[in-house]
Amino acid sequence: KQIQGGKVKGKYPPQLRAFALTLHFYSPKAYCYVRQTFMNKLPASSTIRSWYSSTDGSPGFSTESLQILKIKSQAAENEGKQLYGCLMMDEMAIRKQVQWDHSARKFIGYIDYGSCIHEPEELPFAKEALVYLINGVNARWKIPVAYFLIDSLTAQERAEITRKVLDFLVPSGITIVAL
């Protein structure tokens, strides 16, 4: 109905927005075909990309993840349950490359611990990404909670970052039972 009425002015309705995001996520080519079929009444691909970029994906702790964990924890408490999670971490090799980020107005590709952790004076190129993820033990979900762009870390530095991640997760209400 909403598509047949003509060009959409202002905000797109939530149902249309969800449909467009889902279809574009699974197949951008199929989305372009459907958009042409409905005479360009669906949002443009650039609009969908801007919707995707509304989440802050910069290195450090993810406040969006913390909010989601709080909601899950409160929902479990309402049912009389306690949520348990396993904190997992993984290092992934990344290409040594520096790029200009227009939205953040800074160069990315150097080591970056986010705003909560002290960074060294000279910033070398990042060679790895250290990612922390919570996996539900008594529920089926996985949520990345933090990532850091690193060069290399000693065991003591890795332990300190892990401790800060655990401190960050305390307000969520989820009990971490394993690392």
TrEMBL record:
Pfam family, one: TNP-like_RNaseH_N
Signal peptide range: none
InterPro entries, A to Z: THAP9-like_HTH, TNP-like_RNaseH_N
Domain Transposable element P transposase-like RNase H: 58-178
Entry's transmembrane regions: none
Source superkingdom: Eukaryota
Limits of the THAP9-like helix-turn-helix domain: 7-51
Full protein name: THAP domain-containing protein 9
